[in-house]
Amino acid sequence: MLHPDIKEVLYSEEYIKEVVKGLGSQLTEAYEGKNPLVICVLKGAVMFMTDLTRAMACDLELDFMDVSSYGAGMESSGEVKILKDLDTSVEGRHLVIVEDIIDTGRTLNSLIELFKYRKAASIQIVTLLDKKERRVVDLQADYIGVNVPDEFVVGYGLDFNEKYRNLPYIGVLKKEVYE
Ligand code: 5GP
Ligand code: MG
Ligand code: MG
């Protein structure tokens, strides 16, 4: 049943499953034998990461990182603070950064700089959603699930004020919910 706060479903549960499966196959091929460290950017990418890594048939390791750039609202601040760092050393490792959505690109840009500084062997980005029109830094994902229009979306890990992460689909909120 559709959540009453959702105006429109952009990507259904079934559609997301297909997209994630496709990304999983591509990553399996790319990372076979490399034992990549798959880094989930909390919390938005959690659902995506758990589904994506189950669609990857190669050996891999998981780790989590929490950075703040959005706070409770809807606009990126440009400043990125580490709230939870990785448990694993990235030196010499092949990194796959998993993101829910790339918007301005600031969050990922800072993470990439950090992991380069820490001497990762390689860094690739996989994002479920890409909002290209909103980019303010020069950053491109290596694997993209779908390109999204410039609308604020929730569901499948994505929140508004910590709500709606558990929706199995991705949708657009009704205006009255955030205004
Ligand atoms: P960026 O640094 O690229 O501007 O911001 C990336 C982060 O902002 C995403 O990982 C996500 O947490 C949040 N974000 C950007 N666009 C949206 C959106 O449309 N919906 C939600 N729920 N979060 C978004
Ligand atoms: Mg995110
Ligand atoms: Mg958020």
3D architecture notes:
The model has no long low-confidence stretch (mean pLDDT 94). The protein has a six-stranded mixed sheet. A three-stranded antiparallel sheet has the order 1-9-8. Helices cover 25% and strands 30% of the residues. Helix 1 (13-31) crosses helix 2 (46-54). It starts with 5 loop residues before the first strand and ends with a helix. It is globular and about 50 Å long. The chain contains four helices and nine strands, in the order E-H-E-H-E-E-E-H-E-E-E-E-H. It is an alpha/beta fold and 179 residues long. It binds guanosine-5'-monophosphate (5GP) and magnesium ion (MG) (2 copies). Residues 44, 70, 159 line the site of one magnesium ion.
What can be said about this structure in brief?
Helix content is 25%, strand content 30%.
Which helices and strands occur, and which strands form pairs?
Layout: E1 6-11, H1 13-31, E2 37-42, H2 46-54, E3 61-68, E4 81-84, E5 94-102, H3 106-117, E6 122-130, E7 143-147, E8 153-154, E9 170-173, H4 175-178
Parallel strand pairs: 2-3, 2-5, 5-6, 6-7
Antiparallel strand pairs: 1-9, 3-4, 8-9
Helix pairs in contact: 1-2
The strands making up the biggest β-sheet line up spatially as 4-3-2-5-6-7
> What oligomeric state is this?
single chain
Report how far apart the termini are.
24 Å
The chain-level structural class is alpha/beta
Briefly, what CATH class? Alpha Beta
